[in-house]
Amino acid sequence: MSHDAKHDAHGADGGAHAHPDGNKYLKVAVILTLITVVEVWAYYIPALVESPFFNPGLLIMSAVKFGIVVLFYMHLKFDHKLYRALFTGPMIIAMCTIMALLFLFGQLSIKL
Amino acid sequence: MATIAAPTHAGAADYGEQTGIWSWITTVDHKRIGTLYLWTALSFFLIGGLEAVIIRTQLMKPNMGFVSAETYNQLFTMHGTTMVFLAIMPLSAAFFNFLIPLQIGARDVAFPRLNAFSYWVYLLGGIFITVPILFQVAPDAGWFGYAPLTSPQFAPGPNIDFWVIGLQILGVSSLAAAFNFITTIINMRAPGMTLMRMPMFTWMSFVVQFLLVLAFPPITIALVFLLFDRFFGTTFYAIAAGADPLLWQHLFWVFGHPEVYILILPAFGLVSEVLPTFSKKPLFGYNVMVYSGIMIGFLGFGVWAHHMFAVGMGAIADSIFATMTMLIAIPTGVKIFNWIATLWAGEIRFTVPMKFAIALIAMFTIGGISGVMHSSAPADLQQTDTYFVVAHFHYVLFGGSIMGIFAGIYHYYPKMTGRLMSEKIGNWHFWLTFVGFNLTFFPMHFAGLLGMPRRIYQYDSGQGWDAFNLMSTYGTYLLVVATLFFVWNFVRSRKTGAIAGNDPWGAATLEWSIPSPPPEYNFAQIPEVASRYPLWDLKDPAKTAGIEHSHADSMTITDAHAVPVHEETERKTAKELGIPMPFPTAKPLFTAVGLVTMFCGLLFLRNDMFAVAMTITLTGAAMLIGGLYAWLTAPLE
Amino acid sequence: MTTSHTAAAAGHDDGHVHHHYTTTGLDHRKIAIWTFIGSECMLFASLISTYLIYKGRSIVGPFPHEAWTSETGQQFHAILDIPVTSASTFVLLMSSFAMVLALQAVQLRGTPLPANPTWWQRSQRSSQGWLLMTALLGATFLGFQAYEFTSFVHEGLTIKRNLFGSSFFTLTGFHGAHVTAGVLWLMTLLWIDRSRGLQGKNDELLVDICALYWHFVDVVWIAIFTLIYLIR
């Protein structure tokens, strides 16, 4: 909870940018494009595809893109932390469910 | 019952409110919507009960021959589907609707029209899925509809189509309501009502809404896959195409397990309201009760495959799910102990709601014990698919949820109607229910361990099951009598019950500070809250001396119109008080009809009646879009 | 969660929009859309899980990443077209950028332009332009999807053909339906902007919740692109 004096009488989202910045969003767009380019490029390098880094690498890159869109475009980094809670909880449960199902159907092995 | 001179009982007309059928069709008032849910759900409860009576009559004696195998399949399927989706969930919804805004000091829910929409979709969906039994084409593959039994190859008739489409319709209702209540609880609490000052019913309901939001999508997808297999020839559950027969089971139980917590937590919440009231003591360990409720909700997503111990998942999976299931018994057990501690050294009044609440503690514990027995995967291999499981889940669902809901009905009936239900008839209802329930379901533990399988329509004599089945059936007939007492009490007390006044029970929370029934605006002035038990602070501070209160400056009144908690006895209309009320509107009903019509169109896809299907679906779509447009562009108030 | 001390006073209204007291100072509708997005996480998680569960288990072709010849001699080549889908992925990513600018334009309305504004500074204020751009990019994405679906069908992959076809078309079909709903929502906002103009806190919120929905649909595609197209 913040007692931030910047809030206006209509209760705007806490701590939000009073004046959003088109240039910042442009930078974000460029980063997203670059990561996508790297992902697709990697797809066409056979040595990479064969290596054990391919899948984890792709997963990490797409997770980063996912995070950037959620934090910046969806403004979650700057908005009231209630929204963060409303999103993170379901995301965690969704991720755990996917992993559990993949394990149960033998598509994922846990090396004990 | 002696007539009581005062207080006078104000009806809707005294507040300048509308009366008559149209006012119910166009209502967006959460209290009326709650009442609609209550009546509708109780009606479905009776229908589900009737299905159970026929089932038990068939099982009364070996090879009874009362109904055919196919009819029996439809009966037990509809009994389960009706009780879970059309009775218990909507009974909980009745309380969510009626009670949550009152308990948090709000005037309505966040989205009143969406609230009405949820009810109408439920009603239409309930009718959609129930009518087929009158034509002997009811769903017949169990309430859990395992594929590939429900695939087009093995279930070629329309029965399962009704089931799949009906559940999708009902899912829309529940999801919409969940979004509504989450927003309401987060955003419409009265000044001073922090989350840790909310009444327990509201807290448990809050957890349940999140369970709904997260559990319904998987079953939606599972049903979509089944629908597509049946209508479009996809291969999700087609073994010949390499499909895994366990896909349905996993997706269903990822929903199904949280679903059972959806079914029990509201009842837990109601018990947590009733016990302190009639013990004249605050709930023991409020914080722990909240955290255990949250833990149950969270852990509830990690135990689903304990419904599948016999399918061959392997030792690792079995062990993990067994362990998680045992773990979840801990927060549940904590609640039992806290309830007992609430009763301990209390000044107990054995009213009818109190009896039902205490019965829940005892009966749910029994159901919990058989549940823990199931949690051991090797032990479950004997218990699964036998009547032992039937005993378990009826102890937790009837002995738990239904008892808790009855406690809630007796407790809140005065608030809803302004009159108390008869204690005398209520006692008959309670004792006959208690005896009948135990007579029906306790023998099933034994029949189950002696090997009686579930879902069989008849059995041969000489297996040791006969006496137990006979007892169960007698118990069922006793439950019928008990339920008749309830229906009589419920209907009759509206006219002849003692006038209740604001607070007939000496309770602690905000809903008891306003008249019974409440005016349409609920609170003439939004109260400002300083503790968990605002009315006890007001009337009997000694009771709550040990609990945190702040009248300090951290609780500055932020709403200029909020006042300290007080008993409201004003009888003014909303207009006189200058409170803007939402406009009544039939748009939610219209939109709901459009949505359900769209789903009805799907029914015709399998019969090569594509043109008919398209016509109906497009008509429904037009109604849906038109209704939505009118709804979204019309001001709320 | 503690009470906000900045909540709006109850009962004050402008026009017919009553501003009611709220516990958090936030708008109901924004809380509701985030809750909705939470449920959509589980919806797409179920669809994606099913796709991944059935990956590599189709008995007959076509397959996503390998060629295959059936007993009847029918030849299927690896059916996924990475270059084309990369292009559509890029289009959808750019649509999120356009959406962000559309929201910003509505937020900037009413504030003064700097002296001697550049083209970039002026264009950031065109809410109609950016809403239209978002909708067009979204529609372009849908065009790519339509092209992809029809070419797959011609190559022998139908929704009934095998596990891959069923899970692929259902997953991407659901995603496409969400994009379609988003495009219709954007067109509605555009129409409102053209008729009465979008300005003020309430309108910002209307665009904001559409934007949140749109970005989420984009984010789901990021997951789908990686898990279905790139990972083998």
Describe this structure as you would to a colleague.
- The complex is a heterotrimer of chains A (112), B (637) and C (232).
- Chain A is an all-alpha fold.
- Helices cover 63% and strands 0% of the residues of chain A.
- In chain A, helix 1 (22-43) runs antiparallel to helix 3.
- The radius of gyration of chain A is 19 Å and the shape is flat.
- The model of chain A is unreliable at 1-19 (pLDDT under 50).
- Chain B has two domains: 1-14 and 587-637, no CATH class; 29-527 and 534-581, Cytochrome c oxidase-like, subunit I domain (Cytochrome C Oxidase, Chain A).
- In chain B, 62% of the residues lie in helices and 1% in strands.
- Chain B has helices at 21-25, 30-58, 69-104, 112-130, 159-187, 200-232, 246-279, 286-299, 315-343, 352-375, 377-383, 387-417, 423-449, 466-496, 534-539, 574-577, 587-602, 610-633; strands at residues 527-528, 563-564.
- In chain B, strands 1-2 form a two-stranded parallel sheet.
- In chain B, 57% of the residues are buried.
- In chain C, helix 1 (28-53) runs antiparallel to helix 5 and helix 1 (28-53) packs parallel to helix 6.
- Chain C has a single domain (24-230), classed as Cytochrome c oxidase, subunit III, four-helix bundle (Four Helix Bundle (Hemerythrin (Met), subunit A), Up-down Bundle), CATH 1.20.120.80.
- By secondary structure, chain C is mainly α.
- In chain C, the strands form two sheets. A two-stranded antiparallel sheet of chain C has the order 1-2. Chain C has a two-stranded antiparallel sheet with strand order 3-4.
- Chain C has six helices and four strands.
- Helix content of chain C is 64%, strand content 4%.
- The longest helix of chain C has 33 residues, at 163-195.
- Chains in contact: A-B, A-C, B-C.
- At the A-C interface, helix 1, helix 3 and helix 4 of A face helix 1, helix 2 and helix 6 of C.
